[in-house]
Design goal:
alpha+beta; globular; binds adenosine-3',5'-cyclic-monophosphate
Length: 153
């Protein structure tokens, strides 16, 4: 089953939205496989946002991710990468559709509450960046049979 990375950004923690955001993933039926608070480093952010290196907002973006600790989360489910991306909405909070996390909770491009992996390949690389293998847990949830039909698994 797919696993994907979500980072609850400083804007999420500072605005007291951790419960609101994690509630959405929980209610959707995604399994929380890993979660920890950490202080990101410039080195980690340079690697994580390498595709934005050289852009005018690069340093500002990295600084905004390091201004407070963040919470890194690993969510699991069938098609989890795309499901989580859809739930986050478009990058800019001003463009994101109502009903999405950014559409409902953000007015900003940068202060957009969550980072989510953009593909399965990226998710695998990003999860390795922030979690050790023994920080990802493989436990069963009782309502599993009511989340998916047998042929969806
Ligand atoms: P995220 O999903 O974390 O992936 C890259 C981040 O870069 C994105 O969310 C935004 O927070 C940020 N970003 C992308 N484009 C811009 C921009 N033009 N100005 C400021 N921040 C940006």
């Amino acid at each position: 089953m797919e696993k994907t990375l979500v980072i609850l950004k400083p804007s999420c923690l500072q605005r007291g939205l951790v419960g609101e955001v994690t509630k959405r993933f929980e209610q959707k039926g995604l399994r929380l496989a890993g979660m920890k608070m950490c202080q990101l480093t410039d080195e980690q952010m340079s690697e994580h946002y390498a595709q934005h290196a050289g852009k005018p907002f690069f340093q500002q973006l990295k600084d905004a991710m390091m201004v407070t600790p963040v919470i890194v989360c690993c969510y699991e489910g069938v098609g989890a990468v795309e499901v989580v991306r859809q739930m986050a909405g478009a990058t800019s909070g001003r463009k994101a559709a109502p009903g999405t996390i950014r559409g409902d909770l953000s007015m900003s491009f940068q202060e957009n509450i969550v980072h989510t992996s953009d593909s399965l390949e990226t998710a695998q690389v990003e999860l390795k960046r922030f979690f050790r293998d023994d920080e990802i847990f493989d436990y069963k949830q009782p309502p599993f049979q009511f989340l998916y039909a047998a042929d969806e698994l």
